[in-house]
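Appendix B, Record 12. Input sequence as logged:
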Amino acid sequence: MSYKRLQYINLTALLPKHIVVIYTIIMSTLDGFDLECTIHNLLKASEIIDPSSAQYKSESQTWQAHRNLHPKLLARPDSLASLSRLVAYLADTDLDWAVRCQGIGDASAKDVLISLAGFKEFSFDAENESIIVGGGMTWGEVEEKLQEQAPGYQGKSEFTVSLPLKLDIDH
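Logged structural output:
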């Protein structure tokens, strides 16, 4: 007679039904807790927006209400190092996550939504007559910065599939 080693034992079948219900409730709350603890170790507190925050609604709202998956956590990294750590962690998980910038207003996820709103850098290169803008800037913010740092220039956007988005400026 040969024996097979068990890979998984369902002990809940041996417990009274009310204990199984309590166990299920505890485990379902720990899933979200695990997620938050891990991300809190990767990011600064100022880079994490939870659903109870006043910022959460505006940062996670989609253009189409039915597309909003109400993420458990909203991450708003403010440096490439933070963004890199977060994406590297999420890529190795089964979590549902998405990245949102000003041009992708319908991006949403069940677990983690990454907002690029913290990336507001702007630089104007007068010699090459070009600008570099952060993924968190709106076109209105780009136009304001252009007027401040490059008076006399006007921007016209050009849609491209690759990043960064090209913005030609006319003098």
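The helical segments are 17-42, 54-60, 80-91, 139-149.
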